[in-house]
Amino acid sequence: MFEFFFKYPRSVYARGQFSLLGAWPKWMLVALILVAAAGLAWLIRSRLADAAPVLRSWRVWVIWGLQTLLASLILFLLWQPAITVAELKPQQNIIAVLVDDSKSMAISEDGSTRQAQAVNALQNGVLDNLNRSFQTRLYRVDDLPARIDSLKDLQPNKPSTRIGDSLRQLSEETSDLPIGAVVLLSDGEDNTGGVSADAISALRARHIPVHTVGFGRERSAHDVELDDAVVAPRALADSRLAAKITFHQRGYAGTKINLTVRDVTSSQGKMLASRPVTLGPDGNLQTETLMFDIGGAGAKTLQIAAAPLPNEENTANNTLTRLVNVGSEKRRILYVEGEPRWEYKFIRQAEEDDRMVQIVSIDRTSENKFYRQGISDPKELADGFPARPEDLFVYQGLIIGSVEAGYFTPVQQDLIRQFVDRRGGGLLLLGGQFALADGGWNATNLIDLFPTTLPLQAGTFHREADPRNGTTHTTAELAPAGVDSIITRLVDDPAANAAKWKKLPYLMDYEDPGTPKPGAAVLANMITPEGRTLPLLITESFGRGRTAIMATGGSWRWQMSSPLGDTAHDLFWQQLLRWVASDTPGHVSASVPAQVLLDNGSLALTADVRDQQYNPAPDAKVEAHILGPSGVSALVEMTPVPDSPGQFQAAWSAPKVGAYLTEVTAQRAGKELGRDVLTFQRMDGVAENFHTEQNRDLLERLATQTGGQYWKPADLGKLAASIPFSEAGVTMRETRDLWDLPLVFLVLLLLRFSEWWLRRKWGIV
Fold first, then answer.
1. Most buried residue among 198, 477, 548, 637 by CB atoms closer than 10 A?
2. 526 neighbors 476 (Cβ within 8 angstroms)
């Protein structure tokens, strides 16, 4: 339709330059238009001088405007409007035709595969039309482009698609060839997440337009797809973990589906969690959290899945794989308490059932006297709270109970900061009569360490009266941020968990913790006897570590006043204690961006290396020892990251599919600083099962950014006529007349007819 009115393809107008070929100057055109407008106004005014007032209304000016437009258009055509555009020289340029050869193109729709539809579209006259004016080269595209002799060489079984990488390599390999344009036939699925700016820049530098042709449905009719599953890559043995599963669906709104987490490390595939959920509206992202026990130490492979539903078009995208490295090293927490109280006793009792966490405590029994528990050596904490980094940094967590700030020297207070910031440890502050604001902590230089801004005044600690006297009491409830937190999950079902929190026995005391800071998360609240809602449990990340406030010393009643066998108190404290200590790094902390490598073994390995006092160790010698399937073994030296002291990096590629074990070691002056172990896995052919709908947005953006055009298969008959107008390859400048456009003729008729019809209707002659 566009070419019917405008004579030439859109690309001519997008790339061309307008000009007037008439010999007369342009200022004369403007002058004649003004003269014509004035003359028509004078003529109309003179003819209607004696006419009725109605004829001198706005309607007259409408007639004048139409006549002026008609005269202006005729004058404009006399100046011979034209457009100059670069055009490829016939038979001197190459058109690269790229056909997606990945597994997603083998999906069958409407009786044939996507690739079969692409081949049929090319054989239905498109290639013949291109060959009349250009040289054509055929390529198949998956990870990289490969030239083929015939469309019969296509086999849609490649495990991945990398459109951007393929286009960049094609541009590099054909740098000495006159490539006039690229035609890409694909469903737009790109396993790298999109076409990079480097690939676009390489094409634009050579002015090569990419014409994209989309295949496949733009949305599925019946499908459930898992978009992501977030699971902590590290955990302590016997930990309770959360899998945050994000998914979307079409065609099953309101239907129930079963989400599961399995440990497939063993052949039995042990079920760790299972919960039915109701699917939300079509196309919307939905997030559900499943809690599960990870079990004993070792490298665990988890399979997170949504059970297939009837008539589901693609069930291969219902499953995701995640790896968890479960450690067996016990975590030690230093607990400092300023007064004998029940909270201290019951926290220690809850910890006794957790074989992976040990509490070492200092309990002040009287002035200048303290009682030690859980020590591993008679000399441990013999002088009280540590005053040196090497003595405090042996712990992974720190709990400060009802202890005034003045109990710690300025050196010890600074050491607490360094424990969190530099060591990466966890700090938990409890409420109490000598804690938080009442303990003078709001006047220390540690205020930026806390997750709240403490009140300025004292008197924030309140002890509960006996509710048997008819007084109200303080209760706890779950906050929105605590719904998906592993710390506050007492029951697996979210609704039941929220109800469980409301049924917990009242707290014996509470303390106003102040206002949560912008980066903090309030996991639980408390309702005071006056009806005020105050934060109860607040967490925040700080430096390499994390801090939290539990604004009570009376949670022990959750144990004392609950029915026999109720484990809510112990479970809560075990989970909170693990949060405090489990993520504290060692002297060497290694990581990879993703533990599951899809289709491409390229791996970016990083390590944070610290000395004995946890200062960065930029002069360390760091190596990664990698063991993989079928005898794969490698020793990779890691190099320092510029401007990041203590950070090291290495690039490596996993050559085979399977699981890999990596041990990163660091040495300095021949002495080992530390080591860390991580796992990753290469899986091929999985990414193509996800996002199988046509990614039209990617194809359209690629075409627009390179000066090409997105085409539907039904419109490919016009492709050959549009391609010649390009600045790539060997070109010539062509000038095309615009005065004889069909649209111009239609506008002339419309203006003349509109004037005549309005004059007749309004009685203006």
1. 548
2. yes
Backbone angles phi, psi at 139, to 5 degrees: -135, 145
Eight-state DSSP code of residue 711: E
CA 640/CA 650 separation, integer angstroms: 9
CB 614 within 8 A of CB 424: yes
DSSP tally for the chain: helices H, then strands E? 17, 40
Q: What is the distance between the alpha carbons of residues 391 and 403, in angstroms, rounded to a whole number?
A: 20
Identify the three-state secondary structure at position 341: coil
Region label for 359, one of left (φ > 0), alpha (ψ between -120 and 50) or beta (otherwise): beta
Q: Which helix (H) or strand (E) holds 640?
A: strand 633-640
Q: Which of 417, 451, 447, 423 is nearest to 583 (CA)?
A: 423
Question: pLDDT tens across 229-249, in order?
Answer: 999 999 999 999 999 999 999
Q: Residue 679's closest CA among 608, 628, 610, 640?
A: 628
- Determine the Cα–Cα distance for residues 68 and 61; give it in Å rounded to an integer: 10
Residue 411: burial class (beta carbons within 10 Å; 0-12, 13-18, 19+): exposed
Q: What is the DSSP letter of 126?
A: I
Which of the 8 DSSP states describes residue 422?
T
Higher-confidence residue of 366 and 284: namely 284
DSSP for residue 646 = T
Enumerate the β-bridge partners of residue 360.
334
Of 107, 104, 179, which is closest to residue 139 (Cα–Cα)? 179
Distance CA(79)–CA(29), nearest Å, equals: 8
Integer CA distances (angstroms), 183 to 175, 523, 720, 749, in order: 17, 54, 10, 40
Q: Which two tokens stand for residue 117?
A: 């539809």
Beta-carbon-side half-sphere exposure of residue 342 (alpha carbons within 13 Å): 12
* pLDDT tens profile 46-62: 766 555 554 557 777 78
DSSP 122: I
- Of 579, 565, 550, 592, the closest CA to residue 682 belongs to 592
pLDDT digits (tens, 9 = 90+) for 560-603: 988 888 999 999 999 999 999 999 999 999 999 989 998 778 89
Dump pLDDT digits (tens) for 449-495.
Answer: 999 999 999 899 998 765 555 556 899 999 999 998 999 999 988 99
Angle (CA) 283-284-290 rounded to 5° is 120
Let me know the angle formed at the C-alpha of 223 by 222 and 229, rounded to the nearest 5 degrees: 160
Q: Are strands 731-737 and 81-88 parallel, antiparallel or unpaired?
A: antiparallel
Determine if the pTM surpasses 0.90: no
- How many residues are present in the chain? 765
End-to-end CA distance of the chain: 37
Those residues with Cβ within 8 angstroms of residue 511's Cβ, 6 or more apart along the chain or in another chain: 431, 432, 435, 436, 437, 438, 460, 461, 462, 551, 552, 553
Quickly count: other Cβ atoms within 10 Å of residue 23's Cβ.
7
The span from the CA of 765 to the CA of 47, in Å, is 9
Q: Are 216 and 693 in contact (CB under 8 A)?
A: yes
The 3-state secondary structure of 222-286, one letter per residue = CEEEEEEEECCCEEECCCEEEEEEEEEEECCCCCEEEEEEEECCCCCCEEEEEEEEECCCCCCCE
Residue where the block lists tokens 């925040």:
540
Structure tokens that stand for 745 in this block: 């003729």
Percent of the chain with pLDDT over 70: 97
- Work out the number of other CB atoms within 10 angstroms of the CB of residue 179: 21
DSSP 683: E
